[in-house]
Design brief:
Strand content: 5-15%
Number of domains: 3
Largest sheet: 3 strands, antiparallel
Family: Belongs to the 'phage' integrase family.
Strand order of the largest sheet: 1-2-3
Organism: Blastochloris tepida
Low-confidence stretches: 453-468
Helix content: 40-55%
CATH topology of the largest domain: hpI Integrase, Chain A
Keywords: DNA integration, DNA recombination, DNA-binding
CATH superfamily of the largest domain: Intergrase catalytic core
Number of strands: 7
Protein name: Tyr recombinase domain-containing protein
Shape: elongated
Number of helices: 18
CATH architecture of the largest domain: Orthogonal Bundle
Radius of gyration: 32 Å
CATH class of the largest domain: Mainly Alpha
GO molecular function: DNA binding
Mean pLDDT: 87
Length: about 475
């Protein structure tokens, strides 16, 4: 006779006067889930707890079943790949035969006993559980070296990358999107299954798992997969790179929607607003060096010695870049360096992320603070459909380049100051670079606006954008 609900405490326990569900976890899953799964029911009534508990018990047992299946698949994958490695190293037919016999035994074990046998006049046909049959076939393909999980070598690939954390995060997201798409579409998540046709289909449907339809964002993930496949090909894990020639069409940006340089009026407004001292110093250094924000906030006291900034390499730069300190910046540098050690930060107001695993650049907080300040003083240029203003902190870099060019400075000298590749083979490859005094002349040729300027932004040609 079943116990009345007033006495039934199966899967229940009291905690601080309230009932909660508790379900035991199998021993082999303790490391993953702990010894028991628990969930509060927020009631002190045993009758109510019994009415609520069965759905919760079902949900918790479902979690255990899913984790158990994942653990089994992980164990099977690991064993299959070990067998594939042994088979690849085998040199005699007898060694290969011994490994193949073991693979056959494991396949039979995974497939299990038939769930039904259909009798025909001349034969009996065993019917196996479809899921077990699929797992057994996948095991056989991996163990025979005919199938390799897409993500098998991905961590080794990530470990040797020398890119920014943010780019590595793009690699991780691209892999996640590909695996999710394969699961949704029933595509085998194996390297051998990713043909050119499958890759093109994924590209066309990437927006369904990436949460974005912007072609630039989607192309970024395609490019990261292409870099991974190139790495795999170099190590003979794949024969071709199906992502190499995949390009999403990018709509041409209208001229009036291109990000641009600040005007003198906008620079003057920014420099006269009520920003923090740190923000005023950042803006002035950016305007008189053309340096990127992250390179500025990452400066140490030792990077501002002997009359020059030592900016860290960025983008395609291979070594640090030395830029003369503009005479108008000497007061700022003197104030920020006095009494400090060479290893101290020039901008302690913008420290690096606390977590070593953070994907954010050090300049994230400074960039956010500048955006808020820029909007507060009315410096903005919003285009319909664009998330980012056409003027932003990078517009200081464009402004410096524009002002240096209008001051008569040569293109290759400006390129050396801001870290762009210098034009042509003669200067770009053979020259050791301009003299430091030439760089100083270029920097000093740019001056901050003396005072309030006209609010007119001028004709489009007055706001020529220097390419990034």
């Amino acid at each position: 006779m079943p116990r009345p609900s007033s006495a039934d405490t199966r899967y229940l326990e009291l905690k601080d006067g309230k009932w909660r569900v508790t379900v035991p976890v199998p021993r082999h899953l303790h490391k993953k889930l702990g010894t028991r799964l628990k969930r509060p029911l927020h009631t002190d009534s045993l009758a109510t707890a019994n009415a609520l508990k069965w759905q919760v018990v079902a949900e918790l047992k479902g979690m255990i079943d899913r984790e158990g299946a994942n653990t089994l698949r992980h164990r099977m994958t690991r064993e299959a790949l070990e067998l594939a490695a042994q088979r690849a190293r085998a040199v005699t037919p007898s060694e290969i035969e011994r490994i193949d016999d073991w693979i056959d035994e494991q396949v039979d074990h995974i497939r299990g006993e038939p769930i039904e046998i259909i009798e025909y006049a001349d034969r009996a046909v065993p019917i196996y559980d479809p899921n077990a049959l699929r797992m057994a076939e996948t095991f056989r393909e991996m163990a025979m070296g005919e199938a390799t999980p897409i993500e098998l070598h991905h961590q080794a690939y990530l470990d040797q990358l020398t890119v920014k954390r943010r780019t590595k995060a793009d690699d991780e997201r691209a892999m996640k999107f590909l695996l999710t798409w394969c699961k949704n579409k029933g595509v085998s998540p194996m390297l051998q299954a990713i043909t050119g046709k499958v890759a093109a289909r994924f590209m066309d449907e990437l927006h369904t798992v990436a949460g974005s339809r912007h072609p630039v964002t989607l192309q970024k993930y395609i490019n990261r997969l292409s870099v991974y496949w190139k790495w795999l090909k170099q190590r003979s894990h794949v024969e071709t790179n199906p992502w190499a020639d995949l390009k999403l069409p990018v709509p041409k940006t209208p001229h009036n929607e291109l990000e641009r340089s600040f005007t003198d009026a906008e620079v003057a407004r920014l420099l006269q607003g009520s920003a923090s001292q740190a923000m005023h110093d950042l803006m002035r250094i950016a305007a008189l060096t053309g340096a990127r924000l992250d390179a500025i906030v990452d400066l140490s006291i030792g990077d501002c010695a002997d009359g020059a900034f030592k900016f860290k390499p960025q983008k395609k730069e291979k070594q640090p870049r030395y830029v003369p300190i503009h005479s108008a910046l000497k007061e700022i540098i003197a104030r920020r360096t006095v009494g400090k050690a060479p290893t101290d930060d020039l901008f302690p107001e913008y420290p690096p992320p606390k977590k070593a695993t953070s994907k954010r650049e050090r300049s994230f907080k400074a960039s956010t603070a500048f955006t808020t300040y820029r909007r507060s003083v009315g410096v903005a240029d919003e285009a319909p459909g664009r998330r980012r203003s056409l003027v932003n902190f990078h517009s200081f870099r464009r402004w410096f380049i524009t002002k240096a060019e209008r001051a008569g400075q040569a293109e290759h000298i400006i390129a050396s100051v801001v870290g762009h590749a210098r034009p042509g083979m003669t200067l770009g490859r053979y020259s050791a670079g301009p003299e430091f005094e030439q760089l100083r002349v270029c920097v000093e040729a740019v001056s901050l606006p003396a005072g309030p300027a006209e609010d007119s932004c001028g004709p489009p040609e007055e706001m020529a954008v220097a390419a990034e």
